[in-house]
Amino acid sequence: VGMSIRNRKAPHQTRHVSGHAASHYSAPVSARTYRRRRLMVGTAAALVVACVAGSVISDISASRSLDDVASSSSSAPADKSAANKDAGSEAAKTLTPTETALNGIAGLDGTAQISASGFALDSNAQMQLEQELSVFSSYGYSASFVMVDMTTGKALSSYSGTARYSASAIKGPYVLSLAATGALDLDVVSQGATESDAYIQQLIDQAITVSDNDAYVTLYDTYGAAPFAQWAAQAGTDADVTEAKYLYLSAGDMARMWAQGYDFLFDANADGASVSSDASSSSSAASSSASDSARQWLAGEFGDTLNSSIHMALGDEYAVYSKAGWINGEGDYYALNDAGIVSSASGDYVLAVMTDACGEYGLLTDLIALLDSIHSASMSA
To answer: For 275-334, what is each residue's pLDDT tens digit?
Structure first.
């Protein structure tokens, strides 16, 4: 990786993206093209929704099929704990935002097309959400998501337990793990006083802001998978993050990792070792005591990152901290993912959206805008 900083605002230059060297950047589809495509499928999608309103719409992809779940439009199962259903309980008040969110995610049904934890999704919002998901299916794509409020722990998902190819979306949690566990000294790196520190600072910047694969691989080869494994285990993830640099993992796991990173980035009283009630007992893992200014620098690296659908949908209104991942057939991988933290007018929440709809940015931004409206109406404090 060269020492010069690349221009993160040059969308048509050749990039190293999604784990494949010399891949070419795929520009988001234009609004006109997207509207024309939506008109072509709008009628069909409406007919589908009319037939199944209030019930299950199976999420079937032309390239991947998901199990048909009879209870997919249900809320969280009745046997979930009261702590997950009642985010306002006395027990929840003693938890950090990360612990609150992790408990909310634990209350979701990972096999359901639509699952809610800690609140009841009203029928109109459910119908709109089913319609948005049906549009993905009408194009031959599939999608999963998890959204969780960091204060209330209320959570909403679609197929949150389905593993999908992460592409470069995994770079965000990986860098967070290095900072939160103390594998790198964030205060020193953020200042970049020495040549070595400035180089690590540049690697982080390039891996996050423009998704440079070479920078990510250099970081991974330098620090390894152990800090990531410790940190991910504390979040209660199911995926083995040591398997490869780019992983198959669920939207639930992606959301857990971003929720784990929330306290580190934004809670001055938290260290890097917040542990959920479901997490592995890795409490002995190292943690960072980075300064507020260092954390602010790292959070800033996640603002307005390349190809972030969350930022495209919400960045004009809110502060968004996210890292996207995309790949369009190289190695027979297909993905358009995004995950991160949204600091909205109705409160902070974590959102992870994972799909195989590479290039279809309009599909993701429409879904994300709807999810934000549901958060504002039903999930905030």
So the answer is: 333 333 333 345 668 999 999 999 999 999 999 999 999 999 999 999 999 999 999 999
Residue 243's Cβ-count burial label (10 Å; 0-12, 13-18, 19+) is exposed
How many Å apart are CA 39 and CA 37, to the nearest integer? Answer: 5
Asked if 230 and 282 count as a contact pair (C-beta separation under 8 A), the reply is: yes
Alpha helices in the chain (DSSP H): 31-52, 82-85, 90-93, 97-106, 123-138, 171-181, 186-191, 195-209, 213-223, 226-234, 251-266, 292-301, 309-314, 361-374
Q: Residue 30 in contact with residue 38, Cβ under 8 Å?
A: no
Nearest Cα to 371, choosing from 354, 347, 356, 351?
351
φ/ψ of residue 117, rounded to 5: -125, 125
Burial class (CB within 10 angstroms; exposed 0-12, middle 13-18, buried 19+) of 65 = exposed
Q: Which residue has the tokens 């958060």?
A: 375
Asked if residues 73 and 126 have their Cβ atoms less than 8 Å apart, the reply is: yes
CB 181 within 8 A of CB 231: yes
